[in-house]
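Input record (one chain):
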Amino acid sequence: MASDPAIAAFGSSFTAITLAELGDKTFFVAFLLAARHRGRWVFLGAFTALAAVTVISLALGLGLRSLLPPELVPWLAALLFGGFGLKLLIDAQSMGAQAAEQEAQEAEDLVNAAEAGQSQSKAGGWLVVREAFLLVFMAELGDRTQFATIFLATAPGFTFAALLAGTLAGHALVTGLAVGAGKWIGQLLSERVLYRLSGGLFLVFAAVALREALG
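The corresponding structure, as predicted from the sequence alone:
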């Protein structure tokens, strides 16, 4: 999809994941946990969970790609990218102005339920890591970020290593922002704009894959 597939894979996955994760439920989960516990433990647990889901998602995407003859892979990528991009744009159109606040409220309910009856002052480092891992892992499964990762892995020429590096870099950036400046960033986020940017990006991916499919 570019003169250097490794650079294209890294840049595409980094950009797509960064846009998808900003303002996502996992972003607010990390922010809320960091407000109650040490940030480094929250970051470790959240990032480890995101890395685990990333590996699973990339494996699913690469497995799907391996099932088809090489000449059909660009068509598959174009179909998945285009469908996902259109869905994001349609979701953005019907999205209310308070979508980010709703994501934040769902994340707060999730964290409160997990910590009900617990003493925050007694939460040790590894308990915080475990809590952050479990909450983020469960929130990430079936999320738009996971689908984005799976679909990126179907692109012809995109290797596991390059996609993994780009995806993890995006997750590290957004998780670091959530832990370090989540309250300030959360007030600036527009879920509708982020969905539109993500949808437009995947339509660009679809157009490039379609060009490859047509030769």
